[in-house]
Amino acid sequence: MIDLLPILVPLPVLLPLLGAGLALVFSKHSRAQNVVSILTLTAVMAIALILLFGVHSQGPQVVAIGGWQPPAGIVLVADRLSSLMLVVSALVTLCVLIYALSQDANDDSNETPISVFNPSYLVLCAGVANAFLAGDLFNLYVGFEMFLVASYVLLTLGATAERIRAGVTYVVISLVSSVIFLTAIGVIYAACGTVNIAQLSERLSELPPDVQMILHVLLLLGFGIKAAIFPLSFWLPDSYPTAPAPVTAVFAGLLTKVGIYAIIRTETLLFADSSLRTPLLIAAALTMLIGILGAIAQSEIKRIVSFTLVSHIGYMLFGVALGTTIGLSAAIYYTVHHIIVQTALFLAIGMVEMRGGSTSTRSLGGLMVLSPALSIIFFIPALNLSGIPPFSGFIGKVALFAAGFADHDWLAIVLIIAGTVTSLLTLYVIGRTFNLAFWRDPADAEEPNEELVAEFAERKKTLLAGKTWKSQIGVPRSMFAATSVVVIASIVLTVFAAPLWDLSDRAAENLHSPVNYVTNVLGGDDS
Amino acid sequence: MSLPFILVLAMGFLFACGIYLMLERSLTRVLLGFILLGNGVNLLIVLTAGHGSPPLTDGKYLSTVGMSDPLPQALVLTAIVITFAVTAFLLAMIYRSWRLVRADSLQDDAADLRVAITKMIDSEAEASTEYDDTEFGDEAESPIIGAVDLDDDGTPADRGDEEPQDGGQHAGGQHARGLQDEEQADDERDAKNKHDKNMHDKKKGEKK
Lengths: 527, 208
Prior knowledge:
The complex is a heterodimer of chains A (about 525) and B (about 210).
Chain A: H1 4-8, H2 11-25, H3 30-58, E1 61-64, E2 75-78, H4 80-105, H5 114-133, H6 137-155, H7 161-192, H8 197-203, H9 209-227, H10 235-239, H11 245-270, H12 277-297, H13 301-322, H14 325-356, H15 367-370, H16 372-386, H17 392-406, H18 410-439, H19 450-464, H20 477-495, H21 497-512, H22 514-523
Antiparallel strand pairs in A: 1-2
Helix pairs in contact in A: 2-3, 2-5, 3-4, 3-5, 4-5, 4-11, 4-14, 4-20, 5-6, 6-7, 6-11, 7-9, 8-22, 9-11, 11-13, 11-14, 12-13, 12-18, 13-14, 13-17, 13-18, 14-16, 14-17, 14-20, 14-21, 16-18, 16-20, 17-18
Chain B: H1 3-22, H2 27-47, H3 70-101, H4 110-127, H5 164-188, H6 197-207
């Protein structure tokens, strides 16, 4: 076991890349391609789980790639935080893949050419894993670029006019963020002579405070665009909703959180001393409030949920900005919760679109009667998102607010108020969406969908006559099953809240003493 | 002026031009801007290596004195490749965009415009009616009382004295059709009248 763990560390990056190559080779045989992709991600999932347990019991694992020892060589570091994120991302990507493949198999519109989808998707997974495991800034940049380039392809799949339009915004904004990040790396190297995160955490603090401030702001700008923090968030609701449902689900769930992960690393390891606490807290409050106000104005469910995504990024930033151990562990717990819930919501919305023919609340209606199972699968993550008690959203928010109260600062109290208001407004938005799309008679819609109206009237007749009808989901079973797994995972977050909280608490403690990380990366390998 | 200083000036110039071009609406200029910006950053990374002899040894005399730092040179290779790949992708996307809409500029988001127009109609309709026919009252997201037809310029037009309920749904349908028309027209319109919103609207009016 002791010898096995370091071998496992690079595999979450390597396997999907090899899988992507194989999938390209099999591009003419979609069945073989699907088998390869699913097997790869299942293996990654298993490896990530083993890594998490191994790291939890034996401490961080450091692997020097190619035998080049740090600080000169590239290192991959799996500590509690990164292996936890790996597990969550593996779960989410596997479920979304199964969902996407079954949607594709049942889709006769042929909008998504499958031969491109699988390899790009696997490269995306590899890039995300690489970003989580990266032990130096430049490798982090390479990880970002890997999943970004894959995401450009996935977002513009099929290259319809609408997707190209959205893709242009997304690609240009991402390029700007990458260029800022790369500039930051160049300048940091010029200032410190290293890009190894462990070594940087020692050397950055020796720099003059104003230089530190510039480097800090540069890095945060780059990551802030990726994480969609106000005022750098306007690209997100514009570009995400046009992509295919599974693509949006994995983007919304994972990609913004990679930005948050990078911010957590920056704030704890690199710039533990130079604190941008006040501006970050203000940005967090504005992200929450402006995001949710945007959601209220929308009438497309996909756009509504994209805006709530922006708004809830504010919660994670709140926890990170507080900088205390409890704040960080709340932020980590909330990130895990949000990845799963946001993915589940977008997957459910994809099925709503399939069933109801649209995601506009101006034309949907009656889905509660037409497809009860679908409405339940939408309702659970929706309530979870708005923080209704038994669910993990509530636990995460309470933890964040507790961290805020423990801070004894008026700004933190303002943040708690903003968080509560945002939570209530989320509930309002979700309630309204549910009311319009699921409860009401589809004939009452502003732009009624004739199919839904006819079907609803028929169902009503059978119901009034006292008969029962065979309940149908109206979407492929495997799509429904994949979404259910994600929804169940979100409930598991509540049931096993204590172990998970313990884990994120330990992860936060590790983050809070960067000395551990540094000795593990730089000193631990000599022996 | 020493060589590094000139290179720093060149880097600043590339950054400035790149950022200026990226702010344009024309996609080709954005691409050119990105290329300049990318090269500016690459130059920055190369500059961090310092000025010195090539980082090569003859295998026996292993001194690093006077050498430039090899690490940034390794880093910049990766960065150049990434810039290259992304540039190729951008070119393909711009070409596709040109094929689709015959315009080398960033298009407006139809969904955004729809939200803006809807809100405008709703608020005006609410202000100009005395009845309140939904269970949500004024809180309704888009009350049926929006019994208005879209005029050519997107503002609410003559409302007449229709029955509120029928009128609402009727107008809703009309509204949807109007938007669909507009989307189709968007796809069809050629590069010539792309800036001429009025022309486009007039055309639509004639169709009706």
